[in-house]
């Protein structure tokens, strides 16, 4: 659990960054931004709940009156609450104090995940203002994880490790992907996750679809499975991928040579990129390390996605390890490293770990073996 | 399951409504709008997936290349797919064909739930265009449920009914709210829900917080519980509230007279508002019927929320039964009717059903008894 004092520190730092950036107010929506700043986890809804952080004002949480008690109970730091009744205008309430020092606000930052319907209402209420994504002021804070956050990410990673190991132990052959995916979700919860967000079970040719939705296909002996699973534990995400080959107990059904070669390339790309994740390395450089190895192996055109994404309160967040992102990674950044090769219609391979960039080099949070899991299934 | 032909019909109707409204394109985001129009259920992510529906063009689904196979497998109607690679600009890809007949687009409608970060990118790409919420063109379609949708809502309602009945059968006394909430979620899944979205278990004074988050409070004999639960079954929502009084087996611990009076008022308000839900009745009038009864009983100021909300692919959607919404409800509209009275620090009462406005009057989908559940617990 995040200690309460952290929230006050984060709010103060956000106000300072906003001031430095000339932002009149940060309009923080329900979701990961609000949870990061106050500990309040709520469902995004059509009724506006919004934290307003302005450089020279105490933060205010605007909530529907019927949510007041729930918000008070969940808040882990001291913010003033302003409630609105069903027939009142929450947008004016949220903007009320912003820019009253003089002119109307000229620059407002809004949470990336704020619903468009809410943003359009704010824009209509302040037609002269410019709106920017809140990530422009929040990203620096949220990207650098403190020790408590890393601890939660590690606990989530270890729980996911246990689920991967359990699933690889079988049975698998003869079951549908959907059935295995259901087991994955149950076991994530069993292992301490509050939510199981995804369970990609791509068997046989489906392993070549990186974001395959588990289907009614029955798993057979003599084929690979790409297993990519994750959810949240105390708000923080897990995300791990391992590649399994099921033999059905018959060694003759083992992985063919071409597949072993693909796997070897991905394994080498994953290990080398992980080793490159030191403070100061440009994010795109980590991607390039993995991509270079797969390209040299002749499969560059089949590695069709970026190398990785940040992870924390969101399953995908900054920094993104992708060509074009020249920003250096820093100590405290946490991200996935997940190269893959996908031969459409045939099969695919992916290996993914969550890695923290430490001051003295990369720290890999996942501990499940990274080798090809050749199992009876 | 929704028959496939419905999706093509919905897309054609949306194009017609957009044309009539002078909308150059509807930018449909991942979420309920996309599922309604194509059957494709996907997670909202930072990588843009977007259906573009323009009046005189065939609809196009813009997807990240790595999602292509998953999208193809999930789409239940015929739409062209346009993929983008990790370093390409999906916003230009989505807008590419819009308005090429002549001038740049002047009016673009965007899904209400589109993330602000995506909307800001679209606005930057087309600074001259006006952006409106897609509900302005989609609401008429989505509000009127067809028979297949009503069937799914009914199945979801009956599943939730069974869970309420099971939970009311106990045990309850001596357990924490969180523990009961966990059982609610498990039983929703057991009864056919794919997702359990909320499980409000407000015991004793917590029953006076309408959106109470289940806490570590231990349920005691001689107090009420407001149980408000729901999730989705094949995409469609359930949402039911019943009020329980636990005696611990001792009749002396039964509900006091004041509580019984509150309950009677809410019961009467709920029944009368339900009976008023005929085609042509203004939405706010249904709210007013319930509110009038509670006001006449002297508790108007403790009924602190609107009477109800629409329900379908979203847990809360139009129409809203609230003062200020003078639009008539119509045959096929589906909504909650959920009056409540909340005495802060003491206790509260709420009763909620999902009701469909039928041609010949209201059809109540929930079948669990609406009386006060006085149980041993």
The CATH architecture of the largest domain in chain A is Alpha-Beta Complex
List segments of chain A where confidence is low: pLDDT < 50 over at least 5 consecutive residues. none
Mean pLDDT of chain A: 95
CATH class call of the largest domain in chain A:
Alpha Beta
Radius of gyration of chain A: 23 Å
Biggest interchain interface, per-side counts:
A-B, 49 and 52 residues
Q: Structural class per helix/strand content of chain A? A: alpha+beta
Q: Spell out the helices and strands of chain A N to C.
A: HEHEEHEHEHEHHHEEEEHHEEEEEEEE
Biggest beta sheet summary of chain A = 6 strands, mixed
Helix run count of chain A: 10
Number of domains of chain A: 2
Name the quaternary structure.
Answer: homodimer
Q: Helix content range of the residues of chain A, please?
A: 25-40%
The name of the CATH superfamily of the largest domain in chain A reads Creatinase/methionine aminopeptidase superfamily
Strand order of the largest sheet of chain A: 4-3-2-1-5-6
Under CATH, the topology of the largest domain in chain A is which? Creatine Amidinohydrolase
Choose one word for the global shape of chain A.
Answer: elongated
How much of the sequence lies in strands of chain A comes to: 15-25%
Tally the beta strands of chain A.
18
End-to-end Cα distance of chain A, whole Å, is 38 Å
């Amino acid at each position: 659990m995040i200690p309460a004092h952290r929230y006050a520190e984060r709010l103060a730092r956000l106000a300072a960054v906003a001031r430095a950036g000339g932002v009149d107010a940060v309009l923080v929506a329900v979701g990961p931004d609000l949870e990061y700043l106050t500990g309040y986890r709520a469902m995004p809804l059509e009724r506006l709940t919004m934290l307003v952080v302005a450089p020279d004002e105490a933060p205010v949480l605007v909530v529907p009156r019927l949510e007041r008690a729930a918000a008070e109970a969940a808040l882990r730091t001291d913010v003033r609450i302003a409630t609105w009744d069903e027939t009142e205008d929450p947008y004016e309430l949220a903007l009320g104090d912003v820019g009253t020092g003089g002119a109307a606000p000229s620059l407002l930052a809004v949470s990336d995940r704020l619903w468009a319907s809410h943003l359009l209402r704010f824009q209509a209420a302040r037609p002269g203002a410019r709106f920017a994504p809140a990530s422009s002021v929040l990203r620096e804070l949220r990207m650098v994880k403190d020790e408590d956050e890393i601890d939660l990410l590690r606990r989530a990673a270890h729980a996911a490790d246990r689920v991967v190991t359990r699933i690889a132990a079988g049975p698998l052959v003869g079951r549908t992907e959907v059935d295995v995916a259901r087991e994955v979700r149950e076991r994530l919860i069993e292992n301490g996750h509050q939510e199981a967000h995804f369970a990609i079970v791509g068997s046989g040719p489906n392993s070549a679809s990186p974001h395959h939705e588990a289907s009614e296909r029955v798993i057979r002996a003599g084929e690979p499975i790409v297993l990519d699973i994750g959810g949240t534990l105390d708000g923080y995400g897990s995300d791990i991928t391992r590649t399994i080959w099921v033999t059905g107990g018959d060694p003759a059904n083992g992985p063919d040579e071409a597949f072993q070669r693909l796997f070897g390339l991905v394994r080498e790309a994953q290990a080398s990129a992980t080793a490159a994740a030191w403070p100061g390395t440009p994010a795109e450089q980590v991607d390039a390390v993995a991509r270079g190895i797969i390209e040299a192996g002749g499969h560059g055109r089949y590695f069709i996605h970026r190398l990785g994404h940040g992870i924390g309160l969101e399953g995908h967040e900054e920094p993104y390890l992708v060509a074009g992102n020249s920003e250096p990674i820093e100590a405290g950044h946490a991200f996935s490293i997940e190269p893959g090769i996908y031969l459409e219609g045939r099969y695919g391979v992916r290996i993914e770990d969550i890695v923290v960039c430490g001051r003295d080099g990369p720290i890999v949070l996942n501990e499940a073996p990274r080798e090809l899991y050749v199992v009876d299934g």
